[in-house]
Write a structure and sequence with these properties.
The complex is a heterodimer. Chain A is mainly beta. In chain A, 0% of the residues lie in helices and 49% in strands. Chain A is built from no helices and 11 strands. Chain B has no helices and 13 strands. Chain B has strands at 3-7, 10-12, 18-25, 33-39, 45-51, 58-60, 68-73, 78-83, 92-99, 101-104, 106-109, 115-116, 120-124. In chain B, strands 2, 4, 5, 6, 9, 12 and 13 form a 7-stranded mixed sheet that branches. Chain B has a 4-stranded antiparallel sheet with strand order 1-3-8-7, with no helix packed on it. Chain B has a two-stranded antiparallel ribbon with strand order 10-11. The relative contact order of chain B is 0.31. Classes of the chains: A mainly beta, B mainly beta.
Chain lengths: 108, 126
Amino acid sequence: EIVMTQSPATLSVSPGDTATLSCRASQSVRSNLAWYQQKPGQAPRLLIFGASTRATGIPARFSGSGSGTDFTLTISSLQPEDFAVYYCQQYNNWPPLTFGGGTKVGIK
Amino acid sequence: EVQLVESGGGLVRPGGSLRLSCEASGFTLSSYGMNWVRQAPGKGLEWVSFISSASSYIYYADSVKGRFTISRDNAKNSLFLQMNSMRVEDTAVYYCARAPKYCAGDCYSDPFFDFWGQGTLVTVSS
């Protein structure tokens, strides 16, 4: 099973700043990585797939990068609606499909 | 508009059973693989099970294998999760989630999740 590790667990950022979230896989997942955003009481929403492709309707301030074992989600010019929990998920070697533990982006 | 609506959650005793349903609309369910993903209270996301579009391929997480059964009725636009021998640790919000498809000659499921339902809460407690 591929273990996904996200860091930091919590990130405090001021509106308008840039947030950088990391996700590391225990073995290579090539570019088969997705990112999701989850707000309290809501279902997750797909942001990025293929490590760097934005899903339909996702603003350009969200960008993904990386391949192999190390990945980054960058959120530029943070908006109030961007404060949420973010999860990465690998889909290269499965089953099982595995998620990282999440990074909570909070207001500084 | 793609919509997924789960139902069937509730309180169940340890060792008991529950059947979840997910009704799909706004797309042709028979063309897509589908998943169940759960989230324990205050915890992260855990993939539970996948079923391919024609039910040819079915996979489970080790934590539910032998106790849960995924199925679908494409004619009724519905996905199901039969949960037996339930444990306290099965307590979670259960989401159904669509796997997008890509086509290169034949079509395949891409095993991530492009649309999610709102979830249904399952509580296992005595």
